[in-house]
Design a protein that fits this description.
CATH class: Alpha Beta
Shape: globular
Number of helices: 14
Helix content: 40-55%
Oligomer: single chain
Number of strands: 7
Structural class: alpha/beta
Largest sheet: 5 strands, parallel
Strand order of the largest sheet: 2-3-1-4-5
CATH superfamily: P-loop containing nucleotide triphosphate hydrolases
Order of helices and strands: EHEHEHEHHHEHHEHHHEHHH
Length: about 300
Protein backbone atom coordinates (compact mmCIF):
# COMPACT_ATOMS: atom_id res chain seq x y z
CA UNK A 1 0.00 0.00 0.00
CA UNK A 2 1.35 3.39 -0.97
CA UNK A 3 1.72 6.08 1.71
CA UNK A 4 -0.21 9.30 1.04
CA UNK A 5 2.10 11.34 3.27
CA UNK A 6 5.74 11.25 4.37
CA UNK A 7 6.39 7.66 5.35
CA UNK A 8 8.25 7.12 8.62
CA UNK A 9 11.05 4.64 9.15
CA UNK A 10 10.21 1.85 11.53
CA UNK A 11 12.30 1.34 14.63
CA UNK A 12 12.44 -2.44 14.84
CA UNK A 13 14.03 -2.33 18.31
CA UNK A 14 10.72 -1.06 19.72
CA UNK A 15 7.65 -3.09 20.50
CA UNK A 16 4.84 -2.34 18.10
CA UNK A 17 1.50 -1.05 19.27
CA UNK A 18 -0.78 -4.06 18.83
CA UNK A 19 -4.30 -2.74 19.35
CA UNK A 20 -6.15 0.53 18.90
CA UNK A 21 -9.56 1.77 19.94
CA UNK A 22 -10.25 4.11 17.02
CA UNK A 23 -13.81 5.24 17.65
CA UNK A 24 -16.35 6.41 17.90
CA UNK A 25 -16.42 9.53 20.07
CA UNK A 26 -19.13 9.66 22.76
CA UNK A 27 -19.55 5.90 22.52
CA UNK A 28 -17.85 4.87 25.75
CA UNK A 29 -14.18 5.11 24.75
CA UNK A 30 -13.21 6.84 28.02
CA UNK A 31 -14.90 4.15 30.08
CA UNK A 32 -13.24 1.41 28.03
CA UNK A 33 -9.84 3.13 28.41
CA UNK A 34 -10.27 3.08 32.20
CA UNK A 35 -11.18 -0.61 32.17
CA UNK A 36 -8.28 -1.58 29.90
CA UNK A 37 -5.77 0.09 32.23
CA UNK A 38 -6.79 -2.31 35.00
CA UNK A 39 -6.17 -5.48 32.97
CA UNK A 40 -2.78 -7.13 33.63
CA UNK A 41 -0.86 -7.77 30.44
CA UNK A 42 -1.97 -4.58 28.68
CA UNK A 43 0.15 -1.43 28.44
CA UNK A 44 -1.57 1.89 27.70
CA UNK A 45 0.07 5.33 27.45
CA UNK A 46 1.14 7.03 30.66
CA UNK A 47 -1.04 9.84 32.01
CA UNK A 48 -3.14 10.34 28.89
CA UNK A 49 -5.97 8.64 27.05
CA UNK A 50 -5.63 9.97 23.50
CA UNK A 51 -2.16 10.09 21.94
CA UNK A 52 -3.32 11.31 18.50
CA UNK A 53 -0.19 10.00 16.80
CA UNK A 54 -1.78 8.85 13.54
CA UNK A 55 -3.90 11.98 13.07
CA UNK A 56 -2.19 15.02 14.67
CA UNK A 57 1.40 14.15 15.57
CA UNK A 58 2.47 11.70 12.88
CA UNK A 59 5.44 13.89 11.92
CA UNK A 60 6.95 13.42 15.40
CA UNK A 61 7.95 9.88 14.47
CA UNK A 62 7.60 6.44 15.93
CA UNK A 63 10.21 6.94 18.64
CA UNK A 64 8.06 9.75 20.06
CA UNK A 65 5.01 7.50 19.82
CA UNK A 66 6.63 4.50 21.45
CA UNK A 67 7.98 6.75 24.20
CA UNK A 68 4.40 7.14 25.45
CA UNK A 69 4.44 3.50 26.58
CA UNK A 70 6.68 2.59 29.54
CA UNK A 71 4.91 -0.40 31.10
CA UNK A 72 5.42 -4.04 30.06
CA UNK A 73 2.66 -5.81 28.21
CA UNK A 74 0.74 -5.60 24.94
CA UNK A 75 0.80 -1.99 23.73
CA UNK A 76 -2.46 -0.27 22.85
CA UNK A 77 -4.21 3.07 23.03
CA UNK A 78 -7.56 4.82 22.68
CA UNK A 79 -7.92 7.72 20.22
CA UNK A 80 -11.43 8.03 18.71
CA UNK A 81 -10.20 10.52 16.09
CA UNK A 82 -8.43 7.78 14.14
CA UNK A 83 -11.75 6.62 12.69
CA UNK A 84 -12.52 9.98 11.05
CA UNK A 85 -10.28 9.85 7.99
CA UNK A 86 -9.10 7.20 5.55
CA UNK A 87 -5.59 8.69 5.67
CA UNK A 88 -5.30 7.99 9.40
CA UNK A 89 -6.44 4.41 8.87
CA UNK A 90 -3.89 3.93 6.07
CA UNK A 91 -1.11 5.17 8.35
CA UNK A 92 -2.18 2.62 10.97
CA UNK A 93 -2.23 -0.20 8.42
CA UNK A 94 1.22 0.78 7.16
CA UNK A 95 2.61 0.94 10.70
CA UNK A 96 1.19 -2.46 11.70
CA UNK A 97 -0.81 -4.46 9.13
CA UNK A 98 -1.74 -6.92 11.92
CA UNK A 99 -3.19 -4.20 14.18
CA UNK A 100 -6.21 -5.30 16.18
CA UNK A 101 -8.88 -2.63 15.78
CA UNK A 102 -11.62 -1.97 18.33
CA UNK A 103 -14.65 0.18 17.51
CA UNK A 104 -17.50 1.23 19.80
CA UNK A 105 -20.90 2.28 18.45
CA UNK A 106 -24.11 3.39 20.19
CA UNK A 107 -27.66 4.48 19.48
CA UNK A 108 -27.34 7.53 17.17
CA UNK A 109 -30.06 9.31 19.14
CA UNK A 110 -28.24 9.17 22.47
CA UNK A 111 -24.89 9.77 20.79
CA UNK A 112 -25.95 13.08 19.25
CA UNK A 113 -27.47 14.14 22.57
CA UNK A 114 -24.20 13.24 24.32
CA UNK A 115 -22.23 15.29 21.78
CA UNK A 116 -24.45 18.27 22.51
CA UNK A 117 -23.78 17.97 26.26
CA UNK A 118 -20.05 17.64 25.58
CA UNK A 119 -19.95 20.77 23.44
CA UNK A 120 -21.90 22.79 26.01
CA UNK A 121 -19.60 21.67 28.83
CA UNK A 122 -16.25 21.86 27.07
CA UNK A 123 -16.60 24.47 24.35
CA UNK A 124 -19.25 26.86 25.64
CA UNK A 125 -21.78 25.94 22.95
CA UNK A 126 -24.71 28.32 23.42
CA UNK A 127 -27.15 27.39 20.65
CA UNK A 128 -30.29 25.37 21.40
CA UNK A 129 -30.49 21.59 21.38
CA UNK A 130 -32.80 21.80 18.35
CA UNK A 131 -30.24 23.89 16.45
CA UNK A 132 -27.42 21.47 17.32
CA UNK A 133 -29.33 18.35 16.28
CA UNK A 134 -30.45 19.77 12.94
CA UNK A 135 -26.90 20.88 12.09
CA UNK A 136 -25.59 17.44 13.09
CA UNK A 137 -28.03 15.75 10.73
CA UNK A 138 -27.12 18.07 7.88
CA UNK A 139 -23.38 17.45 8.27
CA UNK A 140 -23.33 13.63 8.18
CA UNK A 141 -24.69 11.11 5.67
CA UNK A 142 -24.05 8.06 7.85
CA UNK A 143 -23.30 7.76 11.54
CA UNK A 144 -20.84 4.85 11.37
CA UNK A 145 -21.02 2.90 8.14
CA UNK A 146 -18.69 4.86 5.85
CA UNK A 147 -15.84 4.87 8.37
CA UNK A 148 -16.45 1.25 9.33
CA UNK A 149 -16.34 0.15 5.69
CA UNK A 150 -12.97 1.91 5.26
CA UNK A 151 -11.69 0.15 8.37
CA UNK A 152 -12.93 -3.26 7.25
CA UNK A 153 -11.48 -2.82 3.78
CA UNK A 154 -8.00 -2.13 5.20
CA UNK A 155 -7.91 -4.64 8.06
CA UNK A 156 -10.51 -7.32 7.32
CA UNK A 157 -13.35 -8.45 9.55
CA UNK A 158 -11.19 -10.73 11.70
CA UNK A 159 -9.07 -7.79 12.87
CA UNK A 160 -11.99 -5.52 13.74
CA UNK A 161 -13.91 -5.93 16.99
CA UNK A 162 -17.17 -3.97 17.21
CA UNK A 163 -18.52 -3.26 20.69
CA UNK A 164 -21.95 -1.87 21.53
CA UNK A 165 -21.93 1.00 24.02
CA UNK A 166 -25.08 -0.40 25.58
CA UNK A 167 -23.33 -3.74 26.23
CA UNK A 168 -20.32 -1.98 27.77
CA UNK A 169 -22.59 -0.10 30.18
CA UNK A 170 -24.94 -2.94 31.13
CA UNK A 171 -22.58 -5.94 30.87
CA UNK A 172 -19.00 -4.62 31.12
CA UNK A 173 -17.61 -7.87 32.49
CA UNK A 174 -18.92 -9.82 29.52
CA UNK A 175 -17.58 -7.25 27.06
CA UNK A 176 -14.12 -7.29 28.64
CA UNK A 177 -14.10 -11.08 28.76
CA UNK A 178 -14.74 -11.23 24.99
CA UNK A 179 -12.28 -8.41 24.33
CA UNK A 180 -9.39 -9.97 26.26
CA UNK A 181 -10.04 -13.25 24.45
CA UNK A 182 -9.86 -11.35 21.15
CA UNK A 183 -6.55 -9.76 22.24
CA UNK A 184 -5.15 -13.08 23.50
CA UNK A 185 -4.85 -11.91 27.10
CA UNK A 186 -5.68 -14.05 30.15
CA UNK A 187 -8.09 -12.20 32.43
CA UNK A 188 -10.09 -13.22 35.48
CA UNK A 189 -13.52 -11.59 35.43
CA UNK A 190 -13.85 -12.24 39.18
CA UNK A 191 -11.36 -9.41 39.83
CA UNK A 192 -13.54 -6.92 37.95
CA UNK A 193 -15.49 -4.03 39.50
CA UNK A 194 -17.87 -2.04 37.23
CA UNK A 195 -17.57 1.74 37.09
CA UNK A 196 -20.28 4.35 37.31
CA UNK A 197 -21.16 6.19 34.12
CA UNK A 198 -20.19 9.80 33.41
CA UNK A 199 -22.60 12.35 34.87
CA UNK A 200 -23.77 15.50 33.10
CA UNK A 201 -21.80 18.50 34.35
CA UNK A 202 -21.41 22.17 33.52
CA UNK A 203 -18.54 24.57 34.29
CA UNK A 204 -19.04 26.79 37.33
CA UNK A 205 -17.10 29.46 35.41
CA UNK A 206 -17.27 28.89 31.65
CA UNK A 207 -14.44 31.31 30.77
CA UNK A 208 -12.03 29.86 33.35
CA UNK A 209 -12.86 26.31 32.33
CA UNK A 210 -12.37 27.13 28.64
CA UNK A 211 -9.01 28.76 29.39
CA UNK A 212 -7.84 25.68 31.29
CA UNK A 213 -8.99 23.36 28.49
CA UNK A 214 -6.91 25.37 26.01
CA UNK A 215 -3.98 25.25 28.42
CA UNK A 216 -4.21 21.47 28.66
CA UNK A 217 -4.05 21.16 24.86
CA UNK A 218 -0.95 23.36 24.77
CA UNK A 219 0.70 21.31 27.52
CA UNK A 220 0.02 18.14 25.56
CA UNK A 221 1.58 19.58 22.41
CA UNK A 222 4.70 20.40 24.42
CA UNK A 223 4.84 16.88 25.93
CA UNK A 224 4.01 18.20 29.40
CA UNK A 225 1.30 15.64 30.10
CA UNK A 226 2.79 14.98 33.54
CA UNK A 227 1.64 18.45 34.58
CA UNK A 228 -1.88 17.73 33.35
CA UNK A 229 -1.79 14.55 35.43
CA UNK A 230 -0.86 16.59 38.52
CA UNK A 231 -3.88 18.85 37.97
CA UNK A 232 -6.11 15.81 37.61
CA UNK A 233 -4.84 14.19 40.80
CA UNK A 234 -5.44 17.43 42.69
CA UNK A 235 -9.10 17.20 41.70
CA UNK A 236 -9.08 20.47 39.80
CA UNK A 237 -11.75 19.32 37.37
CA UNK A 238 -14.16 18.46 40.17
CA UNK A 239 -13.76 21.94 41.60
CA UNK A 240 -14.55 23.55 38.25
CA UNK A 241 -17.63 21.49 37.37
CA UNK A 242 -21.02 21.03 38.95
CA UNK A 243 -23.68 18.44 38.18
CA UNK A 244 -26.38 19.65 35.84
CA UNK A 245 -29.33 18.34 33.89
CA UNK A 246 -29.95 18.84 30.17
CA UNK A 247 -33.20 19.12 28.30
CA UNK A 248 -34.41 15.81 26.83
CA UNK A 249 -34.74 15.32 23.11
CA UNK A 250 -38.23 16.21 21.86
CA UNK A 251 -39.99 13.27 20.14
CA UNK A 252 -39.90 14.95 16.73
CA UNK A 253 -36.11 15.42 16.92
CA UNK A 254 -35.68 11.83 18.04
CA UNK A 255 -37.66 10.71 15.00
CA UNK A 256 -35.61 12.96 12.70
CA UNK A 257 -32.42 11.27 13.91
CA UNK A 258 -33.92 7.82 13.48
CA UNK A 259 -35.12 8.66 9.96
CA UNK A 260 -31.64 9.84 8.94
CA UNK A 261 -29.73 6.81 10.16
CA UNK A 262 -32.25 3.97 9.97
CA UNK A 263 -31.03 2.68 6.59
CA UNK A 264 -27.49 1.90 7.75
CA UNK A 265 -28.73 -0.13 10.71
CA UNK A 266 -29.40 -3.16 8.46
CA UNK A 267 -25.69 -3.47 7.58
CA UNK A 268 -24.58 -2.64 11.11
CA UNK A 269 -26.91 -5.32 12.48
CA UNK A 270 -25.30 -7.88 10.18
CA UNK A 271 -21.83 -6.84 11.38
CA UNK A 272 -22.63 -7.13 15.10
CA UNK A 273 -25.00 -10.09 14.80
CA UNK A 274 -27.86 -8.30 16.53
CA UNK A 275 -30.98 -6.45 15.41
CA UNK A 276 -30.07 -2.83 16.18
CA UNK A 277 -33.50 -1.53 15.14
CA UNK A 278 -34.93 -3.54 18.03
CA UNK A 279 -32.09 -2.84 20.47
CA UNK A 280 -32.15 0.92 19.85
CA UNK A 281 -35.95 1.04 19.59
CA UNK A 282 -35.93 2.63 16.15
CA UNK A 283 -39.35 3.49 14.78
CA UNK A 284 -39.45 2.91 11.00
CA UNK A 285 -40.11 6.15 9.08
CA UNK A 286 -43.37 6.43 7.21
CA UNK A 287 -42.95 5.33 3.59
CA UNK A 288 -41.80 8.22 1.45
CA UNK A 289 -41.63 10.69 4.33
CA UNK A 290 -38.39 12.72 4.27
CA UNK A 291 -36.39 13.62 7.34
CA UNK A 292 -37.79 16.87 8.68
CA UNK A 293 -34.61 18.97 8.45
CA UNK A 294 -34.30 22.56 7.32
CA UNK A 295 -31.21 24.65 6.85
Amino acid sequence: MLCRTNCLKENNTQRKVAFLVIGFSKCGTTTLDEYLREIPGLSLPNQTKEVHFFDRYYDRGQDWYHGKFTQPGMLGEVTPGYSKNLLFLERIAEYNPQMKIIVLIRNPVTRIHSHYKHNVQNFGYEESLVHYVKNSLLSTKTMYLDNLNNTLQLFGRDQVQIILFESLIHNPGGVLNALTHYLGIDWDERTFTPKHGNRSQLPRNRHLYGWLKNLSRKLYKKDLTWLMHVFKRLGLKKLLLSESSFEPLPPELRQDIQNRYSAELHQLSALVGQDLHELWNFTPPASGSPTNITR
